[in-house]
């Protein structure tokens, strides 16, 4: 039991992202309202961003801005272990742009659907579609 | 010129930018700009192909940053083929669909051409890049632009079909992104060739296994492999004609290309077939996909929707061939990327011509169409024969390689599925032919503008449709050459 617990504590960032991802997936699958589904989708994407950013983290490291790259004798004085990995955060800037675009676009579609059918509930939409 | 690889992607992108600007200045100019962008791209693609055949794969460092730090474009024979295919189909479709766009989306043609070019940029980028994360970004560009174009279609159902596609598309792309994350954790690199070297020798690693499963699953969702196909039929049916003509042949096929690229270049045959032994299970899945696609196509009343289920069926062919684990199967799969893109393009061009004249293409609406639209129907028949797999057309040859591959592996269930689905396609298309040929409809056709006499589609549409249909026969005749100069050297 304590093994499992220590496994969870040691890798809590992965557990958190998996939990968030499942919440998002649950929202997308189980919710009836389109806007709730869209929010679920956004949570799903955010979970992956969290995963990436936590991968780049190092204990006792600082932000990757170099104060002085060389010491007085010109030898390199950078220890990679002192700085967190900036690459994963950079990648996630792109992923955030993507998720914002998708979210905005999905919301715009929801508006269009609402204007056409006066509802955002999926079961009602299905009924309306089968009537026509 | 050494910069052709960059030009392939950049030309349509810049064209999209200017086409977008001209929407506010003079909307009529957007179309020639978009067309010019794609023409440059197609020309560069052909130049690159010539270079690759003459002197081997090209590595192009974007902005001069050397890989693995910078993003690299790596073009070998397979990419070059897919690039020409994408640029060619997109270019021809833009010519063929001009009138159709004017008719269906008359209030925002300029914006449509802008988004169209962005979509093609995404597809070209996906085919050319040698960087895993770059691939994700370009997949998302492709997806976002296709969501937008689908929503422009059918006023009632377009937005809803598009939204369902958004949900599934996001799940697929996110799985892929997650897989790339695991690969990055393990190797610290995002360059495909670099990753391939770094994961060699770590077959037992659970991180690599997770990455593999997530990447492939994501791509499968994106390519609509049964049972992950549910988004495809509605999305492609309710999109505007001009867009369904380009997305149906290209989107899924480019995703199949991505799958093959991941299998061949990144993870490697050894890992997939000797360490994981996945061949049997996936070939069974593909068999199911082929059968399910065929059966669901039988149940459709709308011609366009029927064709979308045939795409689901064809995806099964390619996945089955690629996972057969032998050279014949892979050859068949790659040849089928080319052939299926052309066949689907020809079919959708013909259907687009019908939609242009009669608006609704339920199968019962097609009565007597042979007499009224002879040229369009001629193209349709040729394309349909190719889908069925009648010998002089190209569809026969890729099916032949697929069957040979399956025989070599002993996967007789896949052979059976191939034959059965060909029969189903024959039944489907002959049912359509019968209605078009023997049942005479009224001379006038009722559409939303009242009864009109039907004549064949405008010349620009017929010429492209005819050319593409003829290319099916030509590709069929040159299948041997294509296999020997492109596919076999690539697989070596």
Structural notes for this entry:
The complex is a heterodimer of chains A (132) and B (492). With 132 residues, chain A is an all-alpha fold. Helices cover 70% and strands 0% of the residues of chain A. The mean pLDDT of chain A is 86. Chain B is mainly alpha-helical and 492 residues long. Chain B has 21 helices and four strands. In chain B, the strands form two sheets. Chain B has a two-stranded antiparallel ribbon with strand order 1-2. In chain B, strands 3-4 form a two-stranded antiparallel ribbon. The relative contact order of chain B is 0.09. The mean pLDDT of chain B is 89. The chains are: A mainly alpha (132), B mainly alpha (492).
Give the secondary structure arrangement, pairings included.
The complex is a heterodimer of chains A (132) and B (492).
Chain A: H1 2-10, H2 12-30, H3 34-55, H4 86-117, H5 122-131
Chain B: H1 4-25, H2 30-55, E1 58-61, E2 72-75, H3 77-96, H4 98-104, H5 109-128, H6 132-151, H7 158-187, H8 192-198, H9 206-223, H10 231-237, H11 241-267, H12 269-275, H13 279-298, H14 303-322, H15 327-358, H16 369-372, H17 374-388, H18 394-409, H19 412-437, E3 444-447, E4 450-453, H20 459-477, H21 479-491
Antiparallel strand pairs in B: 1-2, 3-4
Helix pairs in contact in B: 1-2, 1-5, 2-3, 2-5, 3-5, 3-11, 3-15, 3-20, 5-6, 5-11, 6-7, 6-11, 7-9, 7-10, 8-11, 9-11, 10-14, 11-14, 11-15, 13-14, 13-19, 14-15, 14-18, 14-19, 15-17, 15-18, 15-20, 15-21, 17-19, 17-20, 18-19, 18-20
């Amino acid at each position: 039991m304590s093994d499992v617990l220590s496994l969870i504590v040691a890798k809590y960032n992965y557990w958190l992202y998996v939990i968030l991802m499942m919440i998002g997936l649950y929202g997308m699958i189980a919710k009836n309202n389109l806007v709730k589904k869209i929010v679920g989708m956004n949570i799903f994407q955010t979970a992956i961003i969290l995963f990436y950013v936590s991968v780049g983290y190092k204990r006792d490291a600082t932000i990757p801005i170099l104060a002085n790259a060389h010491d007085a004798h010109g030898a390199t004085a950078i220890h990679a272990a002192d700085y967190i990995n900036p690459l994963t955060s950079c990648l996630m800037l792109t992923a955030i742009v993507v998720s914002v675009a998708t979210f905005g676009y999905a919301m715009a579609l929801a508006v269009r659907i609402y204007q056409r059918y006066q509802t955002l509930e999926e079961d009602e939409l299905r009924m309306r579609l089968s009537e026509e | 010129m050494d910069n052709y690889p960059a030009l392939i992607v950049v030309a349509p992108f810049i064209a999209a930018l200017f086409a977008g600007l001209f929407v506010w200045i003079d909307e009529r100019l957007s179309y020639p700009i978009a067309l010019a962008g794609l023409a440059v791209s197609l020309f560069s693609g052909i130049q690159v192909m010539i270079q690759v055949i003459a002197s081997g794969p090209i590595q192009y460092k974007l902005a001069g940053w050397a890989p693995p730090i910078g993003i690299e474009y790596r073009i070998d024979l397979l990419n070059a083929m897919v690039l020409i295919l994408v640029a060619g189909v997109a270019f021809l479709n833009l010519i063929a669909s001009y009138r159709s766009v004017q008719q269906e989306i008359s209030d925002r043609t300029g914006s449509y051409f802008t988004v169209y070019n962005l979509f093609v940029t995404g597809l070209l980028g996906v085919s050319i890049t040698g960087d895993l994360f770059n691939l994700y970004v370009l997949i998302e560009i492709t997806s976002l632009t296709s969501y937008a174009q689908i929503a422009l279609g059918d006023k009632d159902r377009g937005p809803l079909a598009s939204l369902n596609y958004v949900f599934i598309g996001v799940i697929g792309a996110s799985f892929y992104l997650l897989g790339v994350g695991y690969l990055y954790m393990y190797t610290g690199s995002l360059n495909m060739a670099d990753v391939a070297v770094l994961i060699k020798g770590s077959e037992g690693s659970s991180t690599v296994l997770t990455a593999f499963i997530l990447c492939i699953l994501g791509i499968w969702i994106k390519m609509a492999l049964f049972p992950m196909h549910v988004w495809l039929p509605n999305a492609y049916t309710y999109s505007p004609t001009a867009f369904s003509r380009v997305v149906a042949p290209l989107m899924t096929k480019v995703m199949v290309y991505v799958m093959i690229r991941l299998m061949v270049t990144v993870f490697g045959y050894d890992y997939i077939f000797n360490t994981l032994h996945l061949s049997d299970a996936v070939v069974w899945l593909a068999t199911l996909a082929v059968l399910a696609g065929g059966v669901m196509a039988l149940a459709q009343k709308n011609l366009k929707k029927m064709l979308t289920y045939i795409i689901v069926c064809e995806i099964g062919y390619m996945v089955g061939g690629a996972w057969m684990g032998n050279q014949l199967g892979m050859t068949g799969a790659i040849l089928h990327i080319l052939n299926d893109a052309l066949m689907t393009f020809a079919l959708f061009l013909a259907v687009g011509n019908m939609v242009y004249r009669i608006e609704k293409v339920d199968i019962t609406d097609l009565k007597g169409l042979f007499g009224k639209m002879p040229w369009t129907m001629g193209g349709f028949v040729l394309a349909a024969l190719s889908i069925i797999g009648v010998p002089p057309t190209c569809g026969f040859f890729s099916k032949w390689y697929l069957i040979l591959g399956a025989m070599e592996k002993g996967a007789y269930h896949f052979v059976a599925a191939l034959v059965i689905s060909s029969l189903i396609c024959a039944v489907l298309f002959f049912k359509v032919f019968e209605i078009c040929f023997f049942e005479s409809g009224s001379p006038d056709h009722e559409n939303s503008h009242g009864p009109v006499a039907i004549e064949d589609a405008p010349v620009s549409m017929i010429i492209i449709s005819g050319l593409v249909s003829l290319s099916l026969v030509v590709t069929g005749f040159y299948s041997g050459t294509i296999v020997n100069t492109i596919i076999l050297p690539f697989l070596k």
